Amino acid sequence: MHPTRKAVVTAAALLVMATAVGCEPGAGTTASHGSSSKPGCPAALSRAKQAVKKAEEVNAPWRGPTTGPKAVHGKTVVYIAQTLTNPGVAGVAEGVQEAAEIVGWHARTLNGQGTPDGQRAAFKQALRLKPDGIVISGFDPGIAAEDVKKANSAGISLIGWHAAATPGPSKDPQLFSNITSRVEDVAKISADWIIARSNGRAGVVLFTDASVPFAKRKSDLIKKELATCSGTKLLSYTNIPIPQVNSRSIGEVRSLLSRFGRKWTYSAAINDLYFGHAAPALRAAGKDGAGAPFNIGAGDGDPSAFQRVNGKDFQAATVPEPLSEQGWQIVDEFNRSFAGAPDSGYVAPVHIATAANSGGALSWDSEGYRQAYRKIWGD
């Protein structure tokens, strides 16, 4: 059992005991905090409950690659971050640095500062460094299309993290691989959690960053899945670009509270950080951190998100990416590229973390991924 899962067993046991003596278990997945009337979508509700139950399972044995080329030594890679204030992007950067050290590579991180100009400047700086590989992390490669072509022409391997709509290799832009969970799966399970937990009765605010195609597609898919339940109403589709979340969230949340009041019972966001910045406004309005609106982050599951979830502090759930694990996967994919091998094809499965199943952990990733990759690399 993963070390961080041990507490889960205890938590689960306590939950069973609480239920047995008639106590309210708290943030139960399917507890209704909306209307006490019959669910507005019996068929969709049944499907959602089944999907959420599976996604909340705590055991996560490694199902990624177990074979591949031995480590090619002496390489240099540059990680271009959309912005290092995005905890997901920063978490993957740490994973890349850790894994690169294991294989004896030099890894450098450049901060794109959260703007197209900053990301283009970082890309140009990366090209001047003449690395063997470049990571495009959390932003659309299209904003630096000419630099992407220069990298391709120079034989620099490009790998994305949330840089394209789908996982795996990409022809336009030309990426050896794009590392991400399947956006369809993340979006669907986030919406299903709302449907299941509200018993098919929810008033939802959806936060997105429409400037990032990956994020916009995710939120559009959440919206689509919410629409499968007639009792789930989308109150607002709110666009706040990630670099502006810090400055705009309080005002936007105040406006939403003024417009919708108690009708706003649930929220979903394409990134957990929205709720970190929404919390002060919700707190100032007298809202209970463990009460409505019940918030789920459809990525990325950074430590601050887990802290809010575990503490029931204006976030009830997160659909975490295995950030460190994906950093290691990026290094493995680079190694396959350098060795002339195809990409691994691995995509991490979706998981929902709540206070009831996290065991107090501050991250989520598969059990044994470090050992698996080190064995592949011959370390």
Structural class: alpha/beta
| Number of separate strands | 12
* Helix content class: 40-55%
Mean pLDDT: 89
What's the main sheet like?
6 strands, mixed
Radius of gyration: 21 Å
Strand order of the largest sheet: 2-1-3-4-6-5
What does this structure look like?
It contains 12 helices and 12 strands. 42% of the residues lie in helices and 15% in strands. The longest helix has 17 residues, at 87-103. The chain has helices at residues 6-20, 42-55, 87-103, 116-128, 145-153, 183-197, 213-226, 245-260, 273-284, 303-310, 323-338, 369-377; strands spanning 76-81, 106-111, 133-137, 157-161, 168-170, 175-179, 202-208, 232-239, 266-269, 294-297, 317-318, 353-354. It is of the alpha/beta class and 379 residues long. Helix 3 crosses helix 11, helix 8 packs across helix 9 and helix 11 (323-338) runs parallel beside helix 12. The strands form 2 sheets. Strands 2-1-3-4-6-5 form a 6-stranded mixed beta sheet, sandwiched between helices. The chain starts with 5 loop residues before the first helix and ends with a helix. The model is unreliable at 1-36 (pLDDT under 50).
Short overview:
The protein is of the alpha/beta class. Helices cover 42% and strands 15% of the residues. The two termini are 24 Å apart.
Structural features:
379 residues; alpha/beta; globular; six-stranded mixed β-sheet
Topology record:
Layout: H1 6-20, H2 42-55, E1 76-81, H3 87-103, E2 106-111, H4 116-128, E3 133-137, H5 145-153, E4 157-161, E5 168-170, E6 175-179, H6 183-197, E7 202-208, H7 213-226, E8 232-239, H8 245-260, E9 266-269, H9 273-284, E10 294-297, H10 303-310, E11 317-318, H11 323-338, E12 353-354, H12 369-377
Helix pairs in contact: 2-6, 3-11, 4-5, 6-7, 8-9, 11-12
